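Discrete fold record:
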Amino acid sequence: MPQPDLQQKLTSSFKDLVTAIADQNLAEIDILVTVGGKRPEFDDLMLRLKKMQGILTEKAVELIKLYRANGGENEQQVTDECKSIIEETIQRFVKQI
């Protein structure tokens, strides 16, 4: 039987991880702007966004597997929370680029 707050701890940690990944990508874009003197092309930004979204999805799948392996009982709720966290992070990322 999992700890009652396992789901909350995992999704909180996931949110921290996702935020760190998005922040890293923003920092890399800032470096490109500093070095290149201009913003990357739109297509390059969208490619970076798509790649980041794939990484975030992979991390969510890993979290859900971990949750399941530790006796998590409400997998759909964790899945929905991960989707929501990813969507919010992507929206924030797009606004910042």
The two ends are 43 Å apart (CA to CA). The chain has a mean pLDDT of 93. The longest helix spans residues 6-36. Residues 3 and 9 are 10 Å apart (CA to CA).
